[in-house]
């Protein structure tokens, strides 16, 4: 009763203000530490209602049944939309934070509003496990492709007659292309999923071949062109979109967690594979060594993936998705006709429309909900939906990606200059950093997020990233391996914690209209992170003009400035992060 009354009151505010006050109120109060809104969402009473409705509907339908308690459920579960909606609401209101959900939010695959039974059925028809597996494999291979060249990029640049710091351009050119590819891949996924994945595989295959051939052709331009092609093949927007649109709600959190796990595993495997290619031989004037073998290996991997994709991927049916709208329109027409004739429909036959009639009687004419939930069709429209809290969280995401890219992309140049590390040492260091991703998420998702508010973890993580950056500077004492490894570990682990909490908060405060469509929340976060990588890699290259000895402090100074500004911005919006 309290929940219904509260909803009616908020609907009145929506009508008077001409603004969706309900969404703002619930988002900002539902998880507020001092809000009484949680008292409305008690499980026991709702469970009793579900049990009573299920029992009575079973009696009406089968004319039999004996139940001792109102909590008893019928032997045969009824597919009634009221019961489905109540159960789904309970799941959404009462689910606690755990590792799986934390990983799912880490992917920023936003959950839309509660689906209708017809929408749920349409998603079930589009779901295909092997296709989902191929999307996750694409995510894994792309992350391997991104980081497999990091340990050897500086040596590759030197072998072509360029400075070691040109590795920033080599690594960052992939991110530059990804800024543009994410948009057209997201738009392409409105019409197809298989074609973008096929195109992505072919472009990545060509890009890796060009990357490997640049050594024998002694062409730095060809090297950068190969990495640009690899960036143009980034289909992460398609991977996210497939999970959001084609995986049933009951399995979507597991699929989202799989997306994050595949990314983390690829991030660790890329550098680890690089240390296995320490060889040097030629076949028909084509050189195979530690700098070219990553390109040849990834070309073969994408060729194998392309064949598997062509054989096993099943394109989801678009007819099932489009058929849900006419069904809902027809149902509304039937209800209107019944009301005009003075007929009444029992709960078993028409529940959703009865609820809509009650809302209309109580609240009068309201804004069309279908209009409110339409996906965004332009970047400008998406920007208008970004509140100050969302903008700050996107900036925090930019900051943490910048700090991580400075650490990872600059590791080859810095460790070679200060410690004379070989490719094997750099690869092992980066692989160890990548292996911390999942354990850190286990700790945060299962323990820390249940002990502290997410905004508290967010601010603490930002401060730890700032501390790690400060400890990395080479100012007075001679630079040592323990200082570099220790400060790098603090920065990377803190950034990983920050990323999970940041994206979890983003999925909560971002408008539900950004859950689908071309310009969705996942695309916006991808663009923010990719832009951060571009700026970080550019900073490394520009700092190289001041000398390799200045690369460390110059890049860290920029990282420190961005980190401090993000902490200040978070403090200004701290009270809106729930």
Features:
single chain, 578 residues, mainly alpha, two-stranded antiparallel sheet, 1% strand, globular
Give a written overview of the molecule:
The chain is mostly helical. About 70% of the residues lie in helices and about 0% in strands. It is built from 27 helices and two strands. The chain has helices at about 1-15, 20-30, 45-60, 80-95, 100-105, 115-125, 130-145, 155-160, 165-190, 195-215, 220-230, 235-245, 250-275, 295-310, 320, 325-340, 350-365, 370, 380-385, 390-410, 410-420, 425-435, 435-450, 455-470, 480-510, 520-545, 550-570; strands at about 280-285, 285-290. The protein has a two-stranded antiparallel sheet with strand order 1-2. Strand 1 (about 280-285) and strand 2 (about 285-290) form a beta hairpin. It starts with a helix and ends in a 6-residue tail after the last helix. Mean pLDDT is about 80; it is low at about 95, about 325-345 and about 350-370.
